[in-house]
Structures
1.
Amino acid sequence: MPDQLGPPLPQPLFGRVAIIGLGLIGSSLARVARRKGLAKTIVAIDLSDAVRARVAELGIADEVAETPEAGVRDADLVILCVPVGANATVAAVIGPHLKTGAVMSDVGSVKASVIANVTPYLRPDISLVPAHPVAGTEFSGPDAGFATLFVNRWCILTPPDGTDPAATEKVRAFWSAAGSNVEIMSATHHDLVLAITSHVPHLIAFNIVGTAAHLEQVTNSEVIKFSAGGFRDFTRIAASDPTMWRDVFLNNKDAVLDMLGRFNDDLAALRGMVERSDGDGLFDLFTRTRAIRRGIIDIGQETQKADFGRLPAGSDESQ
Ligand code: NAP
């Protein structure tokens, strides 16, 4: 398979990059930073002894810090890769130890709350450039990461008004070199867009898998045994990390409730079509939704390949 990442950069973009939280996203970032030569030194920071030991074993960072305070000292770029709800706690610990003029970023799936929760702990000389790589899998932890996770995926930056443009540019260059297409927008707009494209779909998956589990006339073993493609896809999404998703809904409440309101209205209309045996209405809706899927394939964010016969775990070509 051709190397999707291309050769390393001639010069690193940053001297020291500290990555806090070496789970799926943080460990993927460490791997791609190493492969592409994005930093002279990659420092791994994690509160968990087990994660730090595993990162050292995997050799995906140049240094594994004993404490967050020590790890961020002298770092030019610090990237928070912890669940959104942990950002404030981590920022409070590291804030006083950040290098003068350092750039602070994150990878959280919600953006307005990160700005609100982290900014109070940052001195005026620190630039905050929040980022959200729209890339992931349902797996967690340092073994789940891989260097090509961000290739051809979007990364959305949401620098607050007044952010040093040079800092934003450096973070943009970092994500571009990791293979992402970078777009800049306001944090509130990001949260609204992601509520409908990611957060509400996850909520629906959590709900339908929960409903199947609660059915009384159909046993759990039947649900598992006869799980057709549609349900199986929902179970994959519903297997996502509970901590991460709890924090997403707690931190993007307004946008999620807004989109959920629209979803409920549309679901009621759809229910009406089924009740009335409105075949034309159902056919029109399904034709429109099929066109959306084609649009996603056309812009290269998905492949044509039939998905219902997925290969067994571990043989996913994307990894
Ligand atoms: P993950 O695999 O569960 O990794 C999270 C890491 O953060 C773990 O190493 C965890 O260490 C550490 N951590 C947890 N709570 C902490 C705390 N209170 N203080 C310090 N460290 C803590 O999660 P992930 O999927 O990489 O997600 C990380 C971030 O990326 C989240 O903000 C998420 O919204 C965002 N994101 C995720 C995806 C996705 O598809 N997964 C996609 C885009 C963005 P322990 O092992 O000790 O808990």
Note: The pocket of NAP is lined by residues 21-26, 46-48, 51, 81-84, 86, 89-90, 107-109, 133, 136, 140-141, 241, 244 (CB under 6 Å).
2.
Amino acid sequence: MYAQMIKSEATQEDPEKLAAFQARIDAGEKIEPKDWMPQGYRKTLIRQIGQHAHSEIVGQLPEGNWITRAPTLERKAILLAKVQDEAGHGLYLYCAAETLGVTRDELTEMLLDGRMKYSSIFNYPTLTWADMGAVGWLVDGAAIMNQVPLQRTSFGPYSRAMIRICKEESFHQRQGYDIMMKMANGTPAQKKMAQDALNRFWYPSLMMFGPSDKESVHSEQSMAWKIKMNTNDELRQKFVDQTVPQAEYLGLTVPDENLKWNEETGHYDFSQPDWSEFFDVLKGNGPCNRERLAARNKAWDDGKWVRDGLLAHAEKKAARRVAAE
Ligand code: BYC
């Protein structure tokens, strides 16, 4: 539906302008906010960057859950820093989206009333401290796999935001792996917790890359516009190839009986996640969808007095300036 809408809008646009735009993309030029761009390009970016920003913000919730229960002061300081980084990533991304003509308030309202999505992964609960390891290792690992290529994306503000975000995500991934190493080399009970966290987060992490290429609605057009640099399945395969040896090093077992190295392809063969579960989570029926949206709605409502105060202050200042002129 969305793709069709974009296509029909694109056909109404000046073919010469469209061709010149595509030539700029093909030549590897960056598109900047004041440049002419097709409506579909603008809309796709707002959708993707907005969804990404929301994911960073909602992504604070499962980890924020463990700040008060981190096992040591050092672990608590590290987790606190990581969660603050996610808030910062959300802000860079909202700023990048704002350059396309949408306000941060509009984006937030679309998140809160369910018109915009955030990553499916954050609808799963974090039940033990080992989940902080699994989230850093697998979820941030998957995020990096997706986001490193996005540093070369065609829209200037998005690609520049990605450069900074990727630097921080690498630290996040390492801190997660460090927690997993401690747990996997700890007591039998700790190792069991680490294995349990891997069991629960493996398939939801594979789902982060989006549906299979056959089911993906936007990939073809987004790749032609270099909004996306790889297909969902390409990135998922890269993630599996990178992560399996890391699990082996930890002495943990990836919960997939079909996982095996394929000499011919030079990649691991692996089982697909349960895609019906993925689409159900997208519809709002994951284990934590309602809880996450309720938390974001509460934060928005609780912050109203701050927004009102800031607005009143700005209006008063503007009125004083007008009176002085
Ligand atoms: N969750 O045509 P497709 C992070 C939707 S990491 C929810 O392939 P597209 C973080 C998709 O929106 C996560 N929805 O779509 C890490 C579309 O529905 P609509 C954030 C998903 O856009 C650690 C439909 O399915 N990263 O922030 O070409 C700590 C069909 O899919 C998902 C990004 O957002 C999903 N997993 O490709 C804290 C990276 N997958 O919109 C924070 C940037 C698909 O038509 N985003 N859908 O209703 C992307 O690269 C792409 O948007 C995706 C999907 C690869 C995710």
Note: The radius of gyration is 21 Å.
